[in-house]
Amino acid sequence: MDIEVRPLVEADLDDADRIFRDAFATFIGADVFGDTDPLRTRFRARHVASLGAWADGELVGSNLAVRWGSAAYFGPLSITPKLWDAGIGGRLVEVTVAILDGWEAAHQGLFTFAHSPKHHGLYQKFGFWPRFITAIMSRPVTGAEPASGWLLSVAGSAGRPALVEACAGVTGAILPGLDVGGEIDSVLDQGLGDVVLVGEPDAPRAFAVCHTGAGTEAGSGVTYVKFAAVAPGLGAGDAFGVLLDACQGFAAASGAQRLILGVNTARHDAYRHLIGAGFRTDFPGVTMHRPNAPAHNREDIYLLDDWR
């Protein structure tokens, strides 16, 4: 086959979304994406590079590269099932890694199935190595949770830049150069949810980028914490608890019945805190890293993310 990898355009999205859903449903044995829309929402984001793979002129797969400042990850990578093991995934990863290197991302990674040596073997060819399990966790939302913290959308266009910069200060204290400003802009500009903040109004101690509802990465009845972080140091654990309560309150106000998030279990204190707060693991995956280094996955770091 003649395999070509190039950027996706808007007209490709319907086919790319169909392939993506078919590939994961075939491997997992069930539709796990429902009315979420991770492909289109990321395609529209300024910090994401969207790639398609064409075999003999037909779109047969895609991958997304996501830039978080000094860190970057990719996925979901999907290939139409009839062409699995035809070398298309390797071509997509090859081009994706070149993009991550071009961004000068010092730490690169991905999320994949913990039980699949086939996936591990593919990514290891490009220098990605499995480390700790990432637990995708959730807990119910009763609807009675009180609102707390505040929302970045309330700051308006005038106050937004300073707060986005303050959030970058929180993440930069965890890992130099780590910056999820693209995620913040994507959620607010596309109307996918909001950013929950706690701490002083002009200097938040912690924040969470949340999707909620159908057509986002959350889905109907769900609020999903795409990313959250607490400034390290004395009292970080207490601030994490306050942030979780604020996310629960935001979920209740949004009409969600469930709050979902991801945590790398190398962040042991955060993981144990979540268990104590009533979160339970829905399913585990493994993150793979290039280089094979901890980066922001350290025992005392209170940070939530999900590289699916």
Task: Walk me through this protein's architecture.
The protein has 308 residues and is an alpha+beta fold. It has two domains: 103 residues, 3-Layer(aba) Sandwich (Aminopeptidase); 168 residues, Gcn5-related N-acetyltransferase (GNAT) (Aminopeptidase). The chain has eight helices and 14 strands. Strands 1, 2, 3, 4, 5, 6, 7, 8, 9, 10, 11, 12, 13 and 14 form a 14-stranded mixed beta sheet that branches. A hairpin with a 2-residue loop joins strand 9 and strand 10. The longest helix has 19 residues. It is globular, with a radius of gyration of 19 Å. The model has no long low-confidence stretch (mean pLDDT 97).
Keywords, separated by commas or semicolons:
about 300 residues, alpha+beta, Aminopeptidase, 2 domains, 14-stranded mixed β-sheet, globular
